[in-house]
Amino acid sequence: MNIRPGVIRRLAATTALLATGAGLAPSASAADVADVEGYQVKLRVDDVLVDSSGDLTSAALDLFNLSEEDAESGAEVERSLYVDTEDKDFDAAGWSLRLRHKEGEDAYDLTYKYRQDLADNTLSSDSVDQALTDAADANFDSSDDNYEAQVNASYSTSTLDFSNQKSTDCPDSSCDLEDDADSGKAVELLDDKLPGKFEKALGTTLEDADASASQVVTQRTWPVTVDTEDGGIEADLEVTEMSGGYFVEVTAETEDREDAADVRDALEAALDEEGFLRQSDAFKTSLVLDGRL
């Protein structure tokens, strides 16, 4: 039996987020906080699951129930870069700015994301409620429908993210992204649609901050099933070529906080039993900016 995360307790998250209870600061009422649109579990796995070319090994095919044909032709491909200052001022303030191109598309995706850590990594209702209240105090609340709130749960850290998704046509006949050559173009495109919340919080535009683009990273994503003690969990296997190597992670989407906690526990147990779980978070933005793995 395959478990599709998020179908068991859909009403629980909404009830928890609207409740007025312990952990909510008095400066923001429950009616002001944003609704969490979804939860994502992100776990890093060992890069021995790919070879020196980034292709999946036989161990990966066995672990994720993939055929050789699926491994060779079943991946979605995208290329991305991030924009920040030399001192990573945006990242330090909780912001990440990404320009992405999905293979086969004729436009760029622009993502402006504000992130804050949850107080603990248990995905407790108190920690999520407190993060939503803190976000409301920072003007990320239910009155703004330009941002979608999502909780990301990894190995040792969980975060509350607010993402503003936009798009723009590719300025050239080709949407290909290349290191260095596209740095100025990326900054200009992201600056052109810079959200007011970012400019107000940082007090600058990208051009004025002398921002520049990171390395270009290439990600391939396969839909997979991870066998667990209770059945199978539908997830994505993501392999990102970056910093001279490969960053490999498993992600799963849910609509409910308790489901997310259960899915993370089950995935951690299954991946650890097979010896492939990396005991580190699967957040790679800072690594991309630093050129690290």
Low-confidence regions: 3-28
CATH superfamily: Hypothetical Protein Pfu-838710-001
Number of domains: 1
Under CATH, the topology can be stated as Hypothetical Protein Pfu-838710-001
H-E string: EHEHHEHEEHEEHHEEEEHEH
CATH architecture tag: Beta Barrel
Strand pairing plus helix content: what structural class? alpha+beta
Q: Sheet with the most strands?
A: 9 strands, mixed, barrel
- Mean pLDDT score, rounded? 90
CATH class: Mainly Beta
Tell me the strand percentage band: 25-35%
Rg over CA atoms, rounded to whole Å, is 19 Å
Protein name: CYTH domain-containing protein
InterPro entries: CYTH_domain, TAT_signal
Pfam families: CYTH
Domain CYTH: 69-276
Characterization of this structure:
- With about 290 residues, the protein is of the alpha+beta class.
- The chain has a single domain (about 1-25, about 30-290), classed as Beta Barrel (Hypothetical Protein Pfu-838710-001), CATH 2.40.320.
- The chain contains nine helices and twelve strands.
- The protein has helices at about 10-20, 60-65, 70-75, 90, 125-135, 185-190, 195-200, 255-275, 285-290, and strands spanning about 1-5, 35-45, 75-85, 95-100, 105-115, 150-155, 160-170, 210-215, 215-230, 230-240, 245-255, 275-280.
- A nine-stranded mixed β-barrel has the order 2-6-7-5-4-3-9-10-11, surrounded by four helices.
- The longest helix is centred in the C-terminal third of the chain and has 17 residues, at about 255-275.
- The radius of gyration is 19 Å and the shape is globular.
- Residues about 5-30 have low confidence and may be disordered.
- This is CYTH domain-containing protein.
- Keywords: Signal.
- InterPro entries: CYTH_domain, TAT_signal.
- It holds the Pfam family CYTH.
